[in-house]
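Let us work through a complete example step by step.
Step 1: write down the sequence.
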Amino acid sequence: MRTIFVLFDSLNRSAMGVYGGTSVKTPNFDRFAARAMTFDRHYVGSLPCMPARRDIHTGRLNFTHRSWGPLEPFDNSFAEILKKNGIYTHMISDHLHYFEDGGAGFHTRFNSWDFIRGQEYDPWVAMVQPPVERFREIYDERHYPMTRDSKRYQSMINRETIRDEAEYPGPKCFASGMEFLDRNREADDWLLMLECFDPHEPFDAPGRFKNAYNPEKGKVLDWPHYERVVESPEDIQAIRANYAALVAMCDDYFGRLLDYMDTHDMWSDTALVLTTDHGFLLSEHDWWGKCRMPYYEEVSHIPLVIHDPRHPQAAGRRTDALTQTADLMPTLLGLHGVTPPSEARSRDLCDTLAQPADSGREVAVFGVFGGPIGVTDGVHVLYHYPPDWRAEGLREYTLAPQHMTGQFSVKELRTAELSSGFNFTKGVPVLSIAALPDVPRVPLNDGLGFADVGARLFDLLRDPAQKSPIDDAVISARLLQGAIAVLQDHDTPEEVYRWYGLDTTNQSQREEVHDTV
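Step 2: predict the structure and record it as tokens.
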């Protein structure tokens, strides 16, 4: 078996024709769906970027034990497990977070890897005196502060060296993928993880895509802050059009991969998996971004399409099985006949390809460390908040005390105690470090914390756009009990239940759901 695992970042279901989207033309995502099974109830797990990747590697949730951070020394990794079983693994990525303090240990689990430079605020191009005045003429300062202490400043510098389409990081990722296939398509027993940061912000697409969706007349607006929407309708449309252009580029280059597989007759012995880590709010619910607000469907309900040559009968079919990001780990292992480790809390989705009527999980649980807990059964979704998200009481469990872009502070480390560990640490004790209220729990929020807080319940069948929360104590209690069972199976620390106000002994757990906050 050969496997190509394509992971985009922030690819919204609503932007894909196969999921009913009409804002972007995605002929290649759609034609792939004709060869594969489309999963209609696939959800995130741990959020955002690196916590999601830890779910993928380990096959289990991690957001109740620590915030954004590296792969832990005791963690399983699908890439390393495959490598130890004689399957060659190669990763191609332009995702710069792998090379920050909080992203260590993931790419080095592969046999080999190729890092494509220049994405987002990658500290790539060294320019002591950038052309700031010219930047002012090109970029809107609402998205691009003209000071070096802003990460977005480096993005402007990087773009100075990216002129032709082939020089953009996304196209370079796919070019590297084609080189791997040219060298290795005749070989057997390999996995290629082709990971593109696009269409994550900044929404910077090559000219031919941008011109098709947004022939800009004003300054560049393509990197919205994770804030409430305050822009004019014209500016909102410009930002959304820039995202659409970037999705169109992703679809185009994914189509080149499909063309390659057609040309070299790879469909009979090569699996292809297409998914993302999370979505992105593009002014829906009056928000830009993710994770600061409730994990609305645009963020948490994500695409997954799988072609497995062992199940040709699955081509063009859909499934309502309830699945999650962590299920990718045993799926990738199972494609190569490798048994998942006992620590995994997930399932091989190729079983669903064999039996599309399979219902999957009873509930899917998802969230950010220190944020609300989301739980859905595929029909209803509940966002459960703690009584006070600013309160002390949570602890981080780790042997790699690093945040997204820096180490844990001395102040944090002074609270460290030794914990005996959990059902996934393999008998290894870990540091237990207090989650201090002055340390951002979601680093991408720039320390702004959570907003629009307050528990709410939605009926996804009657109200798929989530316009009107409902108040149903019975449904809320049932979802919470399902969430508690999942958390207990993940050996969640006891203080987490107290902090969230979850009663693990009361089967009539009730949730007050507010229509407005």
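Step 3: interpret the result. DSSP finds 14 helices and 17 strands in the chain.
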